[in-house]
Amino acid sequence: MKYGYFDDRAREYVINNPETPYPWINYLGSKNYFCLLSNTAGGYSFYKDARLLRITRYRYNNVPIDAGGKYYYIYEDGEYWSPTWAPVKAKLDYYQCQHGLGYSVITGERKNISTEILYFVPVDDNCEIHRLKIKNNGSSVRKIKLFSFVEFCLWDAYDDMTNFQRNLSTGEVEVEGSTIFHKTEYRERRNHFSFFTVNSNISGFDTDRESFIGLYNGFHEPQVVVSGRPGNSIASGWSPIGSHCLEIVLQPGEEQSYIFILGFMENNPDNKWSSCGGINKDKAYSMIRRYNSDIKVDNALQQLKSYWDDLLSGFYLESGDDRLDRMVNTWNQYQCMVTFNLARSASYFESGISRGIGFRDSNQDLLGVVHMVPERARERLIDLARTQFEDGSTYHQYQPLTKEGNNEIGSGFNDDPLWLILGTAAYIKETGDISILNEEVSFNNGKEATLFDHLLASFNHVVLNKGPHGLPLIGRADWNDCLNLNCFSTDPGESFQTTTNKDDGQAESVLIAGMFVTIGPEFVKMCRFIGKDEIADRAQSEIEDMKKAVMEHGRDKNWFLRAYDYYGNKVGSIDNNEGQIYIEPQGFCVMGGLGIESGFARKALDSVKERLDTEYGLVLLDPPYKQYYPELGEISSYPPGYKENGGIFCHANPWIMIAETVLGRGNNAFEYYKKIAPAYLEEISDIHRMEPYVYAQMIAGKDAVNHGEAKNSWLTGTAAWNYVAITHYILGIRPEYEGLKIDPCIPEEWSGFYVEKRFRGKVYKIHVNNPAKVSKGVKHIKVDGEIIEGNLIRIPLENQARENVNDNTTQHIVEVIMG
């Protein structure tokens, strides 16, 4: 069943049924201020850091599921309703939610009163706009009251939900005209506050939650709205809120517009403080004046749309398949950008409290955005490198506000260092900026270094941490955080312990080995570009040694092993009763060229097709674990078919897509692509449940009770890797150090496609024709009418950072004939 439709011209997903299988959300904000907003106005807001500067509250795992948000209530003659359906849930005569790029519009109508609420965050301001238009579609005069509602969080979201003995006595607000100031903590920190305002005179307000809702009421029946009378309450401790009451008279056919602004102010310590509670309101009022009319709001919205149009114009596809085009041109890139902004910190599945910016996560996220925001990708690489230790290990996560690591010294996730090489390579290939390798960035201990020194430390971290078979030590875990193989017991009767000490933890990872032979050559090329040939030679020798180790000790009869555990037992082998084959090493080992000439790579991918493929995507392993195995760690704690224990972990699926293109099997690659791409799942929303416009991290596998049901949408590495798989490898428009490679691997039935690619300051209009109906192979390429040698359009690297890399609009016509 469908709950809406794609409006490709407007770049919106339009929802016409409020009761979606799960709240379908959008992200508002692009730089520092962010808001999560569901299709029925649930969600919350924060500034920079979803934990430390949370502006409004939200309750996870609640009943009903999507409780709390940016609500409006309409009261008339003893009746009340919500124009966003929730929270009152009174039946609407009309409902529609349009989720666009950085904005949402929710329209509701009941008894000839219609409302349209536009929600968005301006590009360059730390606030969100709610413009509510209300119209009388009837033939008689209507007198109504409009109530607004937000609930303020007391900044630190974790402290807010735990430290009640303190927090219930700290809340402070102030009301001045139509503006409600939330100034909790001004005494302690004196550098920030938030406000909620409307560009109209009000007939009343409330700032105390209990006074507005009632102690025993819910969001659906606040006592102030039920009575139709504001309480004019001033919060003193307890739970501060912001609510306005407006009395509105509408003539037949009349429409009125009201602009509500929820804003955040971070004051400079040198500011002079007003005598009114210690907060400086001048900046707030200046912000309010920037958006206090419809024309100003319209201009800000147009600026936002232009901002996203420019970001998404770096890669444009015409394939003849609407679902593919909308994924590539709009929704996949949009999700990549949102995920880059927030890493894994704040979604409807991540509370914004326990996780910040991930080292592994963000380096992978770069792959999907470096063509859109190269300057921000560069900045992120430097931030990530600063969290790295001198031995190459890293903090696994850091808080975006403080840039401080979340974990103890050294994360023990031994795959982390290699991702920095991959992220840096992606940046250099896209921009041509080789100078980033000379960027000065110290290690975590303060030792001065260049980015190249960090990459060398990353490479050496693998070289210096090998196990008995010459394979990389896994540490606490590799990419699969739940595969914890350094669990041991000195006595069978004792409980298991865990170690990540390299002298004790001898568990080895074939996945990291596959990553090493795939990502390692990128480091070798960088070395050669900057004249470090001796290091390059040593690195290449280490890569060759790793290839030998994998081919000798890292494979089973028909596929690559996953690992060796603490005791030296194989994981991911036909000899195991469960977990006989894993997806990850099949992808990375083939991507790294292992087993290509011998035919073993083909055998491994055939085994993936036979053992891991389902109608909804590739499961992570087969068969799943039916019981808990302490020596395997968390992976076997999940029921069969869920998450890492045999779920369709979508993040790893594109690794197989890419591996299939290495073998030239475009039919298989695109078949796998379609199975998890959300636009192709719109018709099965009752099964899939998540948004049909963005990827989910996990889909329940073939052994799960609810096969095909997704969880954890939006913030997932699935977004970047699927963008890479479809654009770089299936369509084959791939940045390389030396220029732009054209190397499609498509379904044989395709006759061709057209791509516009913005690359190093120029636009390449690429026409690919496939008259011979082959999957892979380029017969010849013409650039501006001239045949070039091979399939690489050569463009030299730059020895300095490129500024305004997207400004040059010089165009080149590229004609490609496959065959």
TrEMBL record:
A molecular-function term among this protein's GO annotations: carbohydrate binding
Keyword entries, A-Z: Glycosyltransferase, Transferase
Classification lineage: Bacteria, Bacillati, Bacillota, Clostridia, Halanaerobiales
Protein name: Glycosyltransferase 36
Species this protein is from: Halothermothrix orenii (strain H 168 / OCM 544 / DSM 9562)
UniProt cross-references to Pfam families, sorted A to Z: GH94_b-supersand (PF06165), Glyco_hydro_94 (PF17167)
CDD domains: GH94N_CBP_like
Gene3D superfamilies: 1.50.10.10, Glycoside hydrolase, family 65, N-terminal domain, Maltose phosphorylase, domain 3, mpn423 like domain
UniProt record, GO biological process: carbohydrate metabolic process
Residue ranges occupied by any Glycosyl hydrolase 94 catalytic domain in the UniProt entry: 307-732
Location of the Glycosyl hydrolase 94 supersandwich domain: 11-293
